[in-house]
Amino acid sequence: MDNHHHLHSFPCLDCQPHTYIRMVQNMIERCLLFRMDRDECVKALAEHARIRPLVTLTVWKELLKENKDFFQAYFQSLSLRPYSNIDMFKGHQDLEEETSANT
Questions:
Q1: SS3 for 2?
Q2: PANTHER family recorded for this chain (predicted)?
């Protein structure tokens, strides 16, 4: 029996949903430390941790709702990156949609 693929096992979304969501949240926070935008984070988690994009997007949106001030400042600081472009931060659009929906 080959156990190589079990060396870095993650919690199961179906078996341990709270633990799995917390793990995804922690991974998103790491992406933020690396100054990634939403799409970069989704891609990184899909490629490196095999997290389904829909799961990452759902957790991202919840973090956005709970931490609006942080994300406003975060998106502002990212927009100052020398290689950024005007349309780069779809996560910022989510924040604007969330803010306008709650007013």
A1: coil
A2: OS02G0137100 PROTEIN, TRANSMEMBRANE PROTEIN
